[in-house]
Amino acid sequence: MRSFLLVLVVSSANADSVLFPSAITIGAVLSSPEHGEFFSKAVEEANSRIVPTLNLPEGFHINHTFIEMNDNPIRTAKDICEDVIPRQVYVVIASHSLHWSLSTVAISFTCGFYKIPVIGISARESTLSDKNVHSSFMRTVPPYSDQAEAWAELMKFFEFKRVILIHSSDQEGRAMLGKFQSKAETKDIEIEKSIQYTVGQENFTQQMAPMLDLSSRVVLLYAVEEDAHKIYAEAARLNLTGDSYAWFVTEQALRPSNVPQGTIGLQLIHGLDEDAHIHDSITAVATAFSSLYSQGINITSSPVDCSDQPDWPSGLTILRHIEQQKLEFGRTGKVTFNDVGDRLGSVYSIVNVLADKSTQEIGTYRANDPTWRENMQPQSIIWPGNQPQVPKGIKISTYLRVVTIEAKPFIYADPATQTGGDCGLEIKKIHCPKYNSTDVDMCCYGYAIDLLLELSKKVNFTFNLHIVEDTQYGELEKRNSSKKTWNGMIGELVETDRADMIVAPLTINPERAAAIDFSKPFKYQGLTILVKKTTKDSSLASFLQPFQDTLWILVMLSVHVVALVLYLLDRFSPFGRFKLAKSDDTEEDALNLSSAMWFAWGVLLNSGIGEGTPRSFSARVLGMVWAGFAMIIVASYTANLAAFLVLDRPEASISGIDDARLRNPQEDFKYATVKHSSVAMYFKRQVELSTMYRTMESRNYRTAEEAISQVKSGDLQAFIWDSSRLDYEAAKDCDLVTAGELFGRSGYGIGLPKDSPWTQEISLAILGFHENGYMEQLDGRWILVKDTKCPEKDASPATLGLTNMAGVFMMVAGGIVAGVFLIFIEIAYKRHRGLKEKELELAKTAADRWRGNIEKRRTLRRTLLQQQQERNKVNNGTSDSAGGSPAPPMANRSNFCPPSAPGRSPPTGYLPVATRTFERETV
């Protein structure tokens, strides 16, 4: 409250010292007396209702003066000097002549010379916005060129990307062209052709006939009423107003009686309501003087005569303050002005011309107000040709130039047969020569050709197919200038205009999508890596692979050590069989070294042990430990053998994109892709793959075929490319395999120029093919083709083959050979030992005979001795009586062996010394 009082005090203090008029006069040059009468009433209303509410000097009031506008601009200027300026007017409100626009210009020039502000209420020529010429002019209406902004917004709303602009060659037409060009550039709208004509021209055939050959069917027309009438007549004669066209015109061009049906035009709301503009102008002047007074700005008296000096600085000050005013609730809506004094925020009515030449409103447009789109009624629009549907806005040619590239299995390109160049009928083939090449006629077929033929039937177009000249897919590259241009198929589409469509395995990526339009993907895929299979050669010792050589040696050594220790433990244990061997209750023979060896091998190999088991407790403890050891060894061998079977499968030499040999390049491991391809762009775009991109950049190949052949030959270890192609190659060649998971997922699409009318139709057709299963049929026919000669990769557990277990069979064969060899040794040994045994048997037989003879002789001698003794006993009596000595005993002579003569056998009954020795040993 205190601040408000302070402002009032300061304002009052300033009012006492400021030079400010107590009354002002507003002049008016209007088109009719009726508007003059309304002007007088509006000034009186302002004095009674508006001025009292403003901060103005006490007693301040507005006077007015009015003259009717003359169609003659010279007479109008004279009337200003004679009837308006002498009244000391501070502001002049100017209307617009219905027949001659130069009258307003004359008012602006005359008042501008004396710096008297002029407020136009109906003049909309763009020339009046030039402050260098019309320094004191402003207006409550926008210029005609302001409709260019509305045009641009409507083009965006209806999704028209290419237009034809017809405009006059005068300053108004050039202003419209310049403003629309600046707006169209920001909204990605192309002006295909700008047709310029001379105002008042009679014949328009020369300018309009070429429109028939243009692709755009959207016509923007800026013309005055007279010229528009002639243009419409010529357009009807050339059939440029049919059902494929769309016409957008300015206000003046809506007035002719022959305006085509379906035309869409703009009409400024309150544009012809001069009374409303008069009211808003008076209000703006009153509020501007209130602002001047509140700011304490001196306002000197205005000129009173055209002969006065033209230096009235207060005039431009008043003009600037009027331009700064904002009327929120004016009779014509919200009133604001830009820096050149033109009206801002004007509201246009968007109208549609009907068959009876009447118009219907289909919406309203206000600049910088996005809600206008919500109020549009496009469903109620009747377009040229009485069509309810929005036209395509572009000429749709049913004959398309299609470019492709050889890329199996999508595109096969073979030389045409010699019989008249016929491509054959066994599969769908079509001619596809290289662009500007007559060397060899080619026949193309494959996945993409089948798709192209089906699309041509579905969408109804004809085509001519050719192979890209430089065999490239398309990448931005610098040529002879610093500007980058597209090469390959994309270059033929956007740079050289050799093609209208790309049908090939063309990957959709951001760089390409910025230059061309893509259809919906017809094939979803990713990137993968093609390598040559690495197979392990199965040697005869494959079954030994689960254990290292040192472990096998330790196992073999352990068998013999355990056998020896078992033998020793059972040998020296008091409870072993050696100690119990003399007892009668011994069940088995004692454990010898051979039996211990048999036991150790039997436990290790899990064979039955029928005999030769340890008897002592210490040996049995060792036997149990050895059995546990054998169980662990056998189980470990079995598990590792299964693992080695899996590893023996043919596998890729790398694990995928994250493999260390890819991330950390090595000299002996080469990998690459195709130059100027989407795969190369992908690696270039990904920061984490930049090292791989730099490594591959100098090694990349021109075509995928070259790279695949290098992989087959072993010169290239890994080829990175689209999964569809590499899966096909791996299925066709048993020596190739894809490595790792897919990465860089994307899709293949049909390439079309930006804003092509075919994009949507082809996308819808492709979606239909996905739904009805046609794309799956193409996959099965061209991509998922397996070579029956290649072994299928089975997910079931691996099985042993002869190559894996050949060593085991060789071991068995070796055992058989060893057994046969040993049996011969045993036979020979047995024969040798049999001879010795036979000799011993003969010696034993001879000894037995000799022993029998000895026994017989002993028995005989014993008998004879007994008989002799008996005789001696009988003779003793006689001998004793005779006194003779006794004979020597026979037993003493039995051990006597008289020597034999040289060369003669010992006498019968005598044995050699060796025989006697053998006899003792055998006994």
What features would you describe in this structure?
The protein is α/β, with parallel strands linked by helices and 923 residues long. Among the domains are: 208 residues, Rossmann fold (3-Layer(aba) Sandwich); 160 residues, Response regulator (Rossmann fold), CATH 3.40.50.2300; 124 residues, D-Maltodextrin-Binding Protein, domain 2; 106 residues, Orthogonal Bundle (Helix Hairpins). It is built from 27 helices and 29 strands. It has a seven-stranded mixed β-sheet, with helices on one face. Helix 19 crosses helix 20. The N terminus and C terminus are likely disordered.
How many beta strands in the DSSP annotation? 29
What is the terminal separation in angstroms? 154 Å
Quickly count the helices.
27
CA radius of gyration is 61 Å
The CATH superfamily name of the domain at 2-141 and 274-341 is Response regulator
Class by SSE composition = alpha/beta
Q: Provide the helix percentage.
A: 40-55%
In CATH, what is the class of the domain at 2-141 and 274-341?
Alpha Beta
Provide the CATH topology of the domain at 2-141 and 274-341.
Rossmann fold
Oligomer designation: single chain
Low-confidence stretches: 1-16, 884-923
Let me know the average pLDDT: 82
The share of residues in extended strands comes to 15-25%
Biggest sheet statistics:
7 strands, mixed
Strand order of the largest sheet: 7-6-8-9-10-14-15
